[in-house]
């Protein structure tokens, strides 16, 4: 369960699989998929440290930034997938 995280909100809690943590334009992000989903759903959050040092996840408010971050995530994810495919072939 090291690759999973439980997110807690006012609506309750839900388990997510961590797809990727990455940095883009000096900001840290995390891509998650709900543990219960069987399709390729992903949510990307900005990571910020609280005053207590804990990580907090925030929605990306700016639409243009969200698009840029998503494109960056997809490019990293595709490179990761290609690397795994090459390893499988060997």
Task: Walk me through the structure.
With 90 residues, the protein is α+β, with helices and mostly antiparallel strands. 30% of the residues lie in helices and 42% in strands. The chain has one helix spanning 63-89, and strands at residues 4-9, 12-24, 27-34, 43-49, 55-58. Strands 1-2-3-4-5 form a five-stranded antiparallel sheet. Strand 4 (43-49) and strand 5 form a beta hairpin. The protein is globular.
Quick description:
Helix content is 30%, strand content 42%. It has one helix at 63-89, and strands spanning 4-9, 12-24, 27-34, 43-49, 55-58.
Question: pLDDT under 50 segments (min length 5)?
Answer: 86-90
How many runs of DSSP E, i.e. beta strands? 5
Shape: globular
Read across the widest sheet, the strand sequence of neighbours is 1-2-3-4-5
Strand content: 35-45%
List the helices and strands and how they pair.
Elements: E1 4-9, E2 12-24, E3 27-34, E4 43-49, E5 55-58, H1 63-89
Antiparallel strand pairs: 1-2, 2-3, 3-4, 4-5
